[in-house]
Prior knowledge:
The structure holds 2 protein chains of 2 kinds. Chain A has helices spanning 3-31, 60-71, 84-97, 108-117, 123-129, 163-168, 178-189, 209-220, 236-251, 263-271, 285-291, 330-341, 343-353, 366-369, 371-382, 395-410, 416-430; strands at 38-40, 43-50, 75-81, 103-106, 141-143, 146-156, 159-162, 196-198, 226-227, 230-231, 275-279, 297-300, 313-314, 316-323, 356-357, 384-385. By secondary structure, chain A is α/β, with parallel strands linked by helices. Chain A folds into 2 domains: 38-155 and 316-385, D-Maltodextrin-Binding Protein, domain 2 (3-Layer(aba) Sandwich); 159-314 and 394-430, 3-Layer(aba) Sandwich (D-Maltodextrin-Binding Protein, domain 2), CATH 3.40.190.10. In chain A, helix 5 (123-129) packs across helix 12 (330-341), helix 8 crosses helix 9 and helix 16 packs antiparallel against helix 17 (416-430). Mean pLDDT of chain A is 87; it is low at 12-16 and 18-40. Chain B is an all-alpha fold. Helices cover 73% and strands 0% of the residues of chain B. The radius of gyration of chain B is 28 Å and the shape is flat. The N and C termini of chain B lie far apart (60 Å). The A-B interface holds A 1, 9, 12-13, 15-17, 19-20, 23-24, 27, 92, 95-96, 113, 117, 194, 203-206, 255-261, 265, 269, 274, 394, 396-397, 400, 403-404, 407-408, 411, 413, 430 and B 10, 24, 27, 30-31, 34-35, 37-38, 41-42, 45, 64-66, 148, 152-154, 164, 166, 168-171, 174, 251-260, 271, 275-277.
Amino acid sequence: MSTHRRMRTRATLLTGIATTAVSIVALTGCGSGGSGSEEAGGDVTIEFAQWWEPELPDGEFRALIDTFEEENPGITVDLVSGPYASTKEQLFAGAASGTMPDVVGLDGAWVSDFAKQGVIADLGPLLEEAGFDDSQLVSQVKVDDSTYMVPVVNFVYPMFTNDDLLAQAGVSAPPETRTEFANAAKSVSDLGGDAAGWVLPLSLEAPNGVQNDVMSWAWASGGTMLKDGQPDLTNDDVTSAVEFIGGMWDDGVIAPGSFTMKEQDKVEEFTNGRVGMMIDSLAHINLIRETNPDLKFSISAVPAADDYTGERGIPYASWGIGVAENSENKDAAAKLVSFLMSEETNSELSTMANAFPGNTESVPAFVEDDELFKKAFEIYQAGYPANEFVGLPVAEELMRKLGAQLQSAFDGQQSLSEALEKAQTEWEAEF
Amino acid sequence: MSLRTVTPPDPETLLGGAPPRKRRQLRRAGESYGFLAPTLILLFVLMIVPIVMVIGYSFQDNVILKSSSEFTGTTNYVTVLTDPAFWKATGNTVFFSTVSVAVHLVLGLTFAMLLNSPLISVTSRAVFRALYVLPWLFTAAVIAVLWRMLLSPNGIVNFLLNTDVEWLADPQLALGTVTFINIWAGYPFFMVSLLAGLQGIPQDLHEAASIDGASQVQRFWNVTIPQLRPIIISLVLLDLIWTSQQFALIWLTTGGGPIDVTEMLSTYTYKLAFANYDFSLAATAAVLILLMSMILAVLYVRHQKARD
């Protein structure tokens, strides 16, 4: 073999080996990494994964975290921000592989699963050690008597009413009871055209309509869907709420397309002036105003059963916070949680997010400037935040199962009581 | 005087023990494996390892989310195979796939023949080809959003038809509607492939058939179809495999609902994994889908081999 040929062969052989090596390194790189608290020269870096930063005005959340870093020299916070769905996937993957970020943004629906896996830490002792008085907290999400999540800010779900449409239908004030609501819905639907009295999203892809638009009727009348932490869907509270909705379904006052309708479709129907009333997150006020500046609408508490006079439960969704069990810097993580829950910071954060604070002492600035928010804050303070899905196992799947049974009942394939009984059996299997 | 060429001995032969031919063969084999290695490693890491892991998960409980998973034998398979929802999803998938593929074929062939017609000028052909191929260029998410808006109770389709049909939300119509959307999204693949096939049929065959007195219809059945048969079989098998695994379109339009009328094997498996967090059952359902797809894949490979 000539020297030239031999060199060429060697070169190709080396190229092959190099390519192989690069592939291995690249693949190894794909699999490595993960969370981590790093420690260098006494300073700690904690990771905080959440979906909040992209939903807040540019740079405001980072500025808040910068304040924390100034107040706590030696702690650096690495914000891991992404959309809600990506954060959820990342956390579930992190939970499985034991690489959860130190501080995690939590949705109440995930808490039970994470707590049972033992991947999130009991916040009680951590906050106590950090010197935080937990009596300031509006609520705490517990599993087996241990606090795993603290709601940082709450988005409540009051009733929105289209003032013009209601006035045209001869309804002068937002309904306060179920009967008034059903009558108002009927009057709006009787206007003809595209108008419908109420809108009920029951999509099985995003089944949170079961929580916000169905179960809210039971909670608004002080009802419950649980008994001793176990499913109790066949009780009078849930039955009367579902029968009330079934009555409106039969009357044809609910906007068409319910079975595949999602939350954003609901808001769109209301924004375009096609429905008289909806139950929706306060977070959408600005979106509705921007999309249809001419729409006149009001906010009220979700109507209660006619004879109910007690405090009304108001559905809510939270930006919750927790600390990973695998975190090596739990004390630093607890300091960050305490900072976000402190009166001043919590007021600031709830103002940024147009949400209600998780600290009882905090008051967001917008309630002073905006009539609708002021009204919503009054409703919030007059009632109590109610969301029994928070902390339940596979909460989203529970909503989906009940949603499918309700669809079947509304479609005439079974009675409402049969639907509730079947959903009860399905729920019991998940507990 | 004769000249003799003296070849100096290979220093490697003098130093090393193995005979030169063997060393050369070894080196050549090493080179070959060196070049194959990146592909082999990728195949191993991205295909073999995940498949083996999923098959392993299907025989255990509490996988991924808990560290205490145990071997459970065929319990997961019994659970999935006795679940009425699994069979409902299988039935829906079979309907969705077979109707989609059949109509894809008919529509694709019709449009391909229209575009192949000598009656159409080159420019018109290019314009129509671009128009007809458009649905194929959209991603499933775009198609889902587009059709959700078009078919909503207040959408343009109901406006044009002067109806108030709940196309996607009515349990009686939903499966047909998502099948229609999938047909719309997928026929261009058939059209483009069959058009290429049609253009490859020698004109002599048609001329000979015409001279023999064959009508247009006879030429279609006796010349065009037999010439296209290998392409048609490949397309049908590939489309069956793809359509039976369609997830995004179903999930984004109906989420498997209303009730369970559009539940497919893909959405059933997804819900087991990401709504129930039961990765063992999800892995079991995935293995069952793999086995079903394998039947189609084997048919496809055998057909390809027969062609070669």
